[in-house]
Amino acid sequence: MSPPLIRRTGLMDRKVQHRDARLILVATEDRYAGPQYFDILQRNAVIDRSRVKVHVLATGEDNRSSPHHVLQRLDDFQVGLEPMDERWLSLDVDRWGEKGLSQVCAEATKKGYRLAVSNPCFEAWLLLHFVDRIDATTAEACVRALRAVAGSYNKTRLQSERYTTPTVRAATSRARALDMNPLDRWPQATGSHVYRLMEGLLPPEA
């Protein structure tokens, strides 16, 4: 039995002009950092809530975080979308490798979903808020580097003051500069394609 259709307007902020605002669905393998991050961006007004709403489909207590489960979560989320709305997958390379990602990314692309994959992990994207380049090649090394440059890091309790319009713009620019093969479905070296999502979320610079 298919899940009931969710009203699009029920996901939007009440003060938003629903006809003009875009809805961005982001399915992530993360239970903590990813969902908090996008919530912080909206609370910090990095994302203009009058024109876009980000709704995150996070991994639940069942810990079903494989790429297939993340894709299935996006498939199962039944909501009436407008043409300007988007569906995104936020995945990590480190836990699944190319073989685990290849089939899911191909299937997602065929369905019109967009990809925001980080290599090795989402923390690489967070690290780019502080540094121009990343020497770490593993998830553990990215976390250590993030703690070293930021002073602390707890994925269950992100510090909102670190993720502001200037730092997010800087991370987007840095990640774009590191993306040597823009046609690839995920970064082949340390980096993050979350910048591709952010390019559509950040308001134009004045």
Considering the chains and any ligands shown, give keywords for the structure.
206 residues, alpha/beta, Rossmann fold, 5-stranded mixed beta sheet, 5 strands, 36% helix
Q: Would you give an account of this structure?
A:
With 206 residues, the protein is α/β, with parallel strands linked by helices. The protein has a single domain (8-201), classed as 3-Layer(aba) Sandwich (Rossmann fold), CATH 3.40.50. Helix content is 36%, strand content 14%. The chain has helices at 33-43, 67-76, 97-110, 122-127, 139-150, 165-178, 194-201; strands at residues 22-28, 52-57, 86-92, 114-119, 191-192. Helix 1 links the parallel strand 1 (22-28) and strand 2. Helix 6 (165-178) packs across helix 7 (194-201). The protein starts with 21 loop residues before the first strand and ends in a 5-residue tail after the last helix.
Helix amount, in percent? 25-40%
Termini separation comes to 49 Å
Number of strands: 5
Which sequence of strands runs across the widest sheet? 2-1-3-4-5
Mean pLDDT: 89
Strand fraction equals: 5-15%
- How many helices? 7
CATH topology: Rossmann fold
From the coordinates shown, what is the CATH architecture? 3-Layer(aba) Sandwich
Strand pairing plus helix content: what structural class? Answer: alpha/beta
- Give the overall shape: globular
Gyration radius, to the nearest Å?
Answer: 16 Å
How many separate domains make up the residues? Answer: 1
**CATH class designation:** Alpha Beta
Kindly report the oligomeric state of this protein: single chain
List the secondary-structure elements in sequence, H or E.
Answer: EHEHEHEHHHEH
